[in-house]
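User: Now give one protein:

AI:
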Amino acid sequence: MQSGMCLFCLLLSLFVSTLTFGEDSSQVEEEFSGAKVLLGAHRGGRGQWPENTLLAYKEASKKWPKALLEGDVQVTADGHLVMMHDARVDRTTNGTGNLADMTLTELKALDAAYHFTRDGGKTFPYRGKGVQVPTLEEVLKAIPNHCFLIELKDGKDIVETTVNIVRKLKAEKRFMFASFNPIYMAGLKQYAPEMETCYDIPSALKLITFLRNGHWEEYTPEHRMLTSSKELEEQFHITPEEIKMIQQKGILYQVHTVNSQEEMKRLLTMGVDSILTDYPDRLAALLKKRSSDRRQGLWSLPWVTRVKLTYIFVFLCFFLFSAVQRPQAGIMVLAMGNQSEAGLHIRFSLLLSFSVKRKKILKLPYLGSMRTVALAVLVPNVISVSWLLTSEPVLTERVSEPLPVIPVSVTV
């Protein structure tokens, strides 16, 4: 029984240590659960970096380790698959002409960040910095762990070319296809039935028909994700209740392209699975605040206050368990007597816990690790209580002399 209590105290200490001293994550990745990918970087985050470039995808993947990276692919004149949205290169590069008429070598000679600006054309921060039009293969190799949503734009054999690259890099499980061209989507289903795909317009209309004609239970999903927009929601009068029904079928519901934080808040409240935005930092800030607002109890208190309250909680648990097992030990823990080794340990750790500074303790850099703080505060208590429960309590015995008997005479 003694060893069981000691083990329980140890596990309790480790648990509370993790709860109290674990750093609050500022990463959006905490918001991802199951198949949800709430944060979607549209064209890599085209409001923050040059769109559809390796620079954008690297920066977005670095800042948000589990973001969904969206982009567009087209086929060059010599059969290469490159990342670009427009049919012409004029808007994003210093070149001119149709992409389909240009070779990969010609495209690589262009400045893919030439027109990118964050201040309405006053400055062009990446112009002349060697930002090129990347191939899909270059992007997937450079970012090996992220999920991608790639829209097929146009080009000869674009379906087969894209699928072959994805299979070559073994990226099937982190890749999803989209296209407004139903021929491409039908070709994908035939050529690569194992690949995840998005609804095109004909299949989306079929879904809505089943949803509203009373035969929804009979409907079998054709694709993995339904992409929508505020305009489409208004046009087809899609309600939050219908979105829930769609999600219950295992279909992810995504909305694009959302740059207003008010609209982002509305969609988050509605419970959508993914939001594509040109400004992923805006969505990331909302997701972080949303996660923070959900915290209650100890997590809503200041960091140092949580440390103090946690210490008190752990100390009381140690006292109760030691008191039940051996009352003398409980008294020693509570009293923290000068003669008690346990008392010295507890008093030292109590002083240490109340002296916590962020990143530093008592201004000693070598004690700066938060895990060091946890061990310094909690381990002495574990040792003390374990010692108290497995050994005879050390109590100072005071032997008093017997009181002398004083004869008393009573006169009546």
